[in-house]
């Protein structure tokens, strides 16, 4: 099976998920803060999502990374392209304690740089709930811009998703 | 018979190559999940749901160390189905499961040949003395296959809440 390559940044390590991460991952998705991902999720649902994030690598050649800070698990960043998405999406989620330190920016920057370096893709999207101000601020800080013509995933509309587009640096 | 890498095993039978599932199986698996054949797998599902379900199956390997094998034809490489121990979070124990993706794959003994190889592999590599299969009373083909594989009805072990109405069959390690 293809697995996530390890990436290091100034303060973080992005690495493949292992079974030992599941408790921290399930706690993160069981928190009310996962509302914009459709949560909070039960441990049973989180297990399926955890399996899914690992499998992206063998199905798409890219996928999810666990983000480790100095004291361990701080969240997940992923680039994924399930069949019902028109194009690959860059997404992120952090634990409540890890917010406010710029970790999501640092991790998303590294994941995106890996993607530009390892694929021929010219763009990536982030699908963000219009009410998710924190993620919109982060997408903007990452240089992504709203794409009013960006196609939505099957079943989505402008009411629940804004398409932010990241472009490969020239 | 077993590939060297314990996290990426391959099993060979007379006609089949069994390997961990990957992108090569996606088209056939989406065909399965979006068809009426998925009725005993909670389907038919949408394409997105089917993709997610297949990804869950593929990702289980890294967490459990076992999972579904893709059943492929040795001669053509075509994906014929899946067979292996499925073990979601809310199951007390893994469930030996199988499926063939299309009607035209049935009636050739592929599922029997695959399941027999997988069960032998599991009892040779896992500390299990038995493994269950949960089968819908309406799924005559799977019930017949379970019995042909040597499994017996286990009326003392109820199926998980996620599989209401299913009967439990138990495969036992050969003495």
Using brief descriptors, characterize the structure shown.
A: 170 residues; alpha+beta; five-stranded antiparallel β-sheet; three-stranded antiparallel β-sheet; 24% strand; globular; B: 175 residues; 29% helix
Give an overview in words.
- By secondary structure, chain A is an alpha+beta fold.
- Chain A has four helices and eight strands.
- In chain A, strand 1 and strand 2 form a beta hairpin.
- In chain A, helix 1 crosses helix 2 (43-60).
- The A-B interface holds A 1-3, 16-19, 22, 43-44, 46-48, 50-56, 58-61, 82-84, 153-155 and B 7-8, 20-23, 26, 30, 46-48, 50-52, 54-64, 88-90.
Quick structural overview:
The complex is a heterodimer of chains A (170) and B (175). Chain A has 170 residues and is of the alpha+beta class.
Q: Uncertain segments of chain A of ≥5 residues (pLDDT<50)?
A: none
Class of secondary structure makeup of chain B: alpha+beta
Rg of chain B computed from alpha carbons, rounded to a whole number of angstroms: 15 Å
Order of helices and strands of chain A: EEHHEEEHEHEE
Task: Specify the number of helices of chain B.
Answer: 4
Percentage beta strand of chain B: 15-25%
Query: Fraction of residues of chain A in helices?
Result: 25-40%
**Main β-sheet, spatial strand arrangement of chain B:** 1-2-3-4-5
Biggest interface, CB < 8 A: A-B, 30 and 28 residues
Q: From the alpha-carbon coordinates, what is the Rg of chain A to the nearest angstrom?
A: 15 Å
Count of DSSP H/I helices of chain A = 4
């Amino acid at each position: 099976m293809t697995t996530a390559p390890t990436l290091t940044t100034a303060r973080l390590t992005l690495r493949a998920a292992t079974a030992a991460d599941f408790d921290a991952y399930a706690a993160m998705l069981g928190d009310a803060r996962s509302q914009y991902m459709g949560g909070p999720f039960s441990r049973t649902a989180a297990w399926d999502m955890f399996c899914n994030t690992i499998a992206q690598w063998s199905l798409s050649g890219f996928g999810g990374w666990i983000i480790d800070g100095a004291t361990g698990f701080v969240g997940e960043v992923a680039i994924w392209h399930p069949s019902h998405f028109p194009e690959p999406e860059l997404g992120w989620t952090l634990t409540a304690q890890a917010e406010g330190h710029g970790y999501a920016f640092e991790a998303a920057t590294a994941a995106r740089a890996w993607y530009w370096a390892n694929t021929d893709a010219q763009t990536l999207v982030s699908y963000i709930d219009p009410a998710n101000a924190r993620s919109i601020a982060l997408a903007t800080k990452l240089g992504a811009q709203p794409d009013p013509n960006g196609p939505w995933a099957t079943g989505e509309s402008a009411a629940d998703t804004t398409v932010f587009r990241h472009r490969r640096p020239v | 018979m077993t590939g060297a890498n314990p996290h990426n095993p391959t099993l060979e039978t007379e006609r089949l190559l069994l390997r961990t599932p990957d992108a090569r199986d996606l088209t056939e698996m989406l065909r399965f999940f979006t068809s009426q054949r998925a009725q005993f797998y909670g389907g038919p599902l949408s394409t997105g749901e089917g993709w997610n379900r297949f990804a869950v199956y593929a990702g289980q390997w890294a967490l459990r160390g076992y999972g579904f094998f893709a059943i492929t034809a040795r001669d053509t490489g075509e994906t014929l189905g899946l067979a292996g121990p499925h073990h979601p979070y809310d199951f007390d124990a893994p469930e030996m499961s199988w499926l063939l993706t299309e009607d035209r794959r049935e009636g050739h003994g592929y599922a029997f040949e695959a399941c027999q190889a997988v069960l032998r592999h599991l009892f040779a590599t896992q500390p299990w003395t038995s493994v269950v299969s949960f089968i819908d009373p309406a799924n005559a083909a799977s019930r017949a296959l379970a019995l042909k594989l040597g499994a017996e009805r286990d009326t003392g072990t109820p199926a998980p809440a996620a599989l209401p109405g299913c009967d439990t069959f138990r495969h036992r390690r050969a003495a």
